[in-house]
Design goal:
Blueprint (H helix, E strand, L loop, with lengths): L6 H4 L2 H6 L16 H6 L6 H13 L6 H8 L6 H7 L6 H14 L6 H13 L26 E3 L4 H5 L1 H13 L15 H5 L3 H18 L3 E4 L2 H15 L5 E4 H10 L12 E5 L12 H8 L5 E2 L18 H4 L1 H16 L5 E4 L2 H13 L5 E4 H6 L3
Parallel strand pairs: 1-2, 2-3, 4-5, 4-6, 6-7
The protein binds iron/sulfur cluster (2 copies).
One iron/sulfur cluster binds next to helix 3 and helix 6.
Length: about 375
């Protein structure tokens, strides 16, 4: 908002006025579909309410305030509202919600204080975990050489290397079993998802420029990642901001599905258990990858896949996204508790996901309630049967 003008949401002026205020994006009276409404129960918690806020800001009937900014950031950017709205009219709700955040950032009311600390660290050490950049590759097993000439780059992201190295190690094990050589780049920086999602677009752009230059210098042809946040950012945000890219971006579930289909990866073990699958918002609703993880799971001998009530496009968010886990950790946990209850209703022994961030939040919830579910990543499960 420069000189009182709302710059970022003004781009969506026509879309914002198309909202017919049906209210379905909030889930109606019978069911919860919007984590932010589930937490807040205010009209302003829903996408419909936020569009009204956007209209009022554009008309000058409402002025930015810290309370307003907080409400705008209490949303996981899960995209459930956009999926529902798509069935009625099409509105780019996630883009609009992000533009609102960018406007809050422009007037100094966003991102939230914890986000600002994280972004300051990212600018210094290129990761959001308050860790040193050089420790990004500490997870690589001793003696394992991933610095070769492969044109397949394993983009590790930040969450697994710094917080859940078992996922990165499992991913490498699976690649080894398939005879696929991958390259890990120590000069990789945070993909920028944290920055783009919290309205700090300038920070995100710096990170994107660095990474794109790195990919070009390495001559990569394929980028594979296990992190849906990175996947969405590399696949959608980078080309949108910087133009078409010459490489393919794949999530590990897609990459592994292809290896299995071509007989390059053999699954020799069994997992005799019921498994339910949680669709990460960035992999499902944001990028449309629903079937590859399910097909990979079904290919594991002995495994029975059972679906939760809300699944695929209608999946309930884990609660961590959009900067909610860092700025409002209790809210993130409340949303995850709902998902854990739903997973437990399937009588599954394992709750599998394909996102280290979802895995962390769901595990935090399950552990805090003393639940029996084993929460893990698809790559960890696969590493047990190769
Ligand atoms: S579903 Fe779409 S049209 Fe209906 S209130 Fe929500 S944003 Fe508006
Ligand atoms: S993105 Fe998710 S949390 Fe945010 S308003 Fe839409 S449904 Fe609610």
């Amino acid at each position: 908002m420069n000189g009182g003008k709302v710059m970022q949401i003004s781009e969506y002026y026509n879309q914002i006025w198309k909202c017919g205020r049906c209210g379905y994006c909030g889930g109606g009276y019978l069911e919860d579909r919007c984590p932010s409404r589930f937490l807040g129960r205010f009209e302003s918690s829903t996408a419909r309410g936020k569009l009204l806020i956007a209209r009022a800001l554009m008309n000058g009937e409402l002025h930015p305030s810290p309370e307003l900014a907080k409400r705008i950031y209490e949303c996981t950017l899960c995209g459930s509202c956009e999926t529902i709205c798509d069935r009625i009219i099409h509105l780019d709700l996630v883009d609009i919600l992000e533009a609102l955040r960018a406007d809050m950032a422009d007037v100094g009311l966003g991102p939230m204080p914890r986000h600002k600390e994280i972004l300051d660290w990212i600018k210094k050490e290129h990761n959001p975990y308050m860790e040193k950049h050089e420790d990004r590759v500490k997870w690589i097993p001793q003696g394992k050489d991933v610095s070769g000439q492969s044109k397949i780059l394993y983009f590790t992201g930040c969450t697994a290397p710094y917080r859940q190295p078992e996922i990165s190690r499992a991913s490498l094990q699976v690649m080894d079993a398939a005879g696929v050589e991958v390259l890990v780049a120590p000069k990789e920086w945070c993909c920028g998802s944290v920055a783009f999602r919290t309205g700090a677009r300038d920070v995100g752009l710096d990170l994107a420029n660095h990474n794109v230059e790195l990919f070009r210098s390495l001559g990569v042809e394929t980028i594979v990642t296990h992190c849906p946040g990175c996947y969405r950012t590399l696949k959608l945000d980078y080309p949108k901001l910087l133009g078409e890219m010459p490489w393919k971006v794949l999530h590990f579930s897609e990459f592994v599905e292809d290896l299995l289909g071509r007989g390059k990866l053999q699954l020799n073990g069994r997992i005799d258990a019921k498994v339910t699958y949680h669709d990460p918002c960035h992999l499902g609703r944001h990028t449309g990858v629903y079937d590859p993880p399910r097909r990979v799971l079904k290919s594991i001998p002995g495994l029975e896949l059972v679906e939760m009530e809300r699944t695929r496009e209608d999946a309930w968010c884990c609660g961590a996204g959009g900067g909610v886990k860092s700025a409002f950790p209790d809210s993130a946990l409340k949303v995850a508790n709902e998902r854990i209850k739903e997973a437990e209703q399937t009588a599954a022994q394992y709750l599998v996901t394909t996102c280290p961030f979802c895995r962390q939040n769901l595990k935090d919830s399950s552990d805090s309630s003393g639940g029996h579910l084993q929460v893990c990543d698809l790559m960890e499960l696969l590493a047990r049967v190769i």
